[in-house]
């Protein structure tokens, strides 16, 4: 039997892609909403069986306040957090707030579905390897943990970072071109460079990788930050027909 659920994530493209995949598997997805800041009110008003709540920064203070509010107002709703490779603090914060599970952003749809079913049944929905990894990190903390998001960010030019943010927001080539004031052909070239540098084959994969590593949260900064972009900019171009 399908589950009545909601998908809430700051990045619309990820939320809508996951919602579509779950609908194809027979579940009733009530909403795919962004941003997560309004998740609590939306979930409380719709009262699904399960809420999938996306976050790129699970260890950030206050990140799971929406979970606390949901569980206070709708204790019957099971909340499963979708996030990056978590730190022990992130997992602890999610469950302390009342979450029923934690699933990585790059988990296969079958794994997400298993977590949904376990959460609806009142069970803890977290992969054993995540718990093992958390305990391992607690027992053997890395002196200087590798920051994959920062590493990936350093591979991209400021203009490519802006393109990646727009891709994650669900913009197509023409919207990217219009928003950046460039020709569609130039926008396509930037997108291809981003995919190549990140080592992925599609826009959806790029968005998922950026969300999982926290790259998007680091990237979202005022447009003025591009003022010092040293990348050689193309000359005036006429829009494509």
UniProtKB/TrEMBL annotation:
Per UniProt, the keywords (alphabetical) are:
DNA-binding, Transcription, Transcription regulation
Q: Where is this region: Disordered?
A: 220-241
Q: Which Gene3D superfamilies match?
A: 3.40.50.2300
Question: Residues in domain HTH luxR-type?
Answer: 149-214
Say if the entry is tagged with keyword Nucleus.
no
Membrane spanning stretches? none
Q: Can you give the residue ranges of the Response regulatory domain?
A: 4-120
> What is the protein's name according to its record?
LuxR C-terminal-related transcriptional regulator
Record SUPFAM superfamilies: C-terminal effector domain of the bipartite response regulators (SSF46894), CheY-like (SSF52172)
């Amino acid at each position: 039997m399908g589950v009545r659920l909601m998908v809430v994530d700051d990045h619309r493209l990820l939320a809508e892609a996951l919602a579509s995949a779950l609908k194809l598997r027979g579940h009733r997805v009530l909403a795919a909403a962004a941003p997560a800041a309004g998740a609590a009110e939306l979930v409380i008003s719709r009262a699904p069986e399960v809420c999938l709540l996306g976050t790129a920064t699970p260890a950030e203070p206050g990140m799971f306040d929406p979970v606390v509010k949901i569980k206070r107002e709708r204790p019957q709703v099971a909340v499963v957090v979708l996030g990056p490779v978590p730190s022990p603090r992130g997992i602890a914060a999610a469950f302390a707030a009342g979450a029923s599970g934690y699933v990585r952003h790059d988990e296969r749809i079958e794994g997400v579905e298993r977590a949904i079913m376990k959460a609806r049944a009142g069970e803890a929905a977290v992969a054993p390897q995540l718990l093992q990894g958390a305990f391992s990190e607690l027992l053997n903390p890395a002196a200087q943990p590798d920051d994959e998001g920062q590493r990936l960010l350093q591979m991209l030019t400021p203009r490519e970072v802006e393109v990646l943010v727009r891709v994650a927001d669900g913009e197509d080539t023409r919207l990217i071109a219009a928003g950046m004031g460039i020709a569609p052909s130039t926008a396509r070239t930037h997108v291809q460079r981003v995919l190549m540098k990140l080592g992925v084959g599609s826009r959806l994969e790029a968005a998922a990788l950026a969300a999982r590593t926290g790259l998007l949260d680091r990237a979202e900064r005022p447009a003025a930050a591009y003022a010092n972009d040293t990348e050689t900019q193309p000359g005036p171009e006429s829009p494509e027909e």
